[in-house]
Amino acid sequence: MADDIAPLRVSEEQSNLEAIRDTFEDELYNNNLSELIIPVLPLFLYSLPAFAAAFKLYSISGAMSKPAFSFLSVLLIAVGLGLYISKGGVPGQADNPADDNYTESQSEQDWPWTFPPRRDLSNRDEFDDLGSDEVDILLSEYEQISEEVRYRDGLLNRTTYFGIAILGILATALDTVALSNKPLLILIISITMYIFAMALVKYKDARDLHWRRKRDLERLIPEFRGKLTAFHVNRTAQRRFLDRFSLTSFMINMFLALFAISLLGYLTLIILLPWILAGG
């Protein structure tokens, strides 16, 4: 079937990237205006009740405005979260290219400089007859992957410690601001916790892809077996019960839990704030 596919012709004046963009009609490279607005609109709706509380807009029309303020606030928060989730705004979702991004006429064989033919990493036999040049290329890839893993491990650690420091600062500030401004601060806490959780998920997913590639290279390349063992030493060791989950996984769960707690606190305080201040 692949023999029937006409190779892509690229003029000397046209770069490889330009050829790819032309062939795929910019589907993989451009964001339209709506995609740029999608993250902003839910955040605006989600934040609006906190700013309304800070300016005490619930007291403009007297007692009847209190239930209306609470209802509209909950509605805005729910719509903002729902719109964000409905558009794929959840850590770890919609990040991998779909299998149907490339049609039969746009197979990898048409793009040797971008999508090189790859061996089946599940088949050991394909690696038994590697030439010395191929082994050197795979060894270079292994070294580059190792550097990428170390870099992303550093990102994970720095993000974790920075997130803990920011959380401490925000928690301290929560006790010092006026009651009408607390929803705004809790809003900031919830968004911050979500951002750190999402960042850790992204970094960890990218790091784990490299670890899996290292595993395949160590297991399947005859020249590497028993000599390159980073994956098997670091990722398959027997662990104590409390050490079965990595620090990154623990911090992702902690940040998401703190986001859920702050979201619940944000909703509760927004609903009750008009009556609390009126009673005070």
Q: In brief, what are we looking at here?
A:
This protein has 8 helices and no strands. It is an all-alpha fold and 280 residues long.
The domain tally reads 2
Radius of gyration: 26 Å
**Largest sheet descriptor:** none
Order of helices and strands: HHHHHHHH
Describe this structure in words.
- It is a single chain.
- This protein has 2 domains: 1-30 and 90-118, no CATH class; 120-279.
- It has helices at residues 16-24, 33-37, 40-54, 65-86, 132-174, 182-220, 230-234, 247-279.
- With 280 residues, it is mainly α.
- It contains 8 helices and no strands.
- It is elongated and about 80 Å long.
- 61% of the residues lie in helices and 0% in strands.
- The relative contact order is 0.12.
- The termini are far apart.
Name the features.
elongated, 2 domains, 8 helices, disordered N terminus, mainly alpha, 280 residues
Q: What topology does this entry show?
A:
Blueprint: H1 16-24, H2 33-37, H3 40-54, H4 65-86, H5 132-174, H6 182-220, H7 230-234, H8 247-279
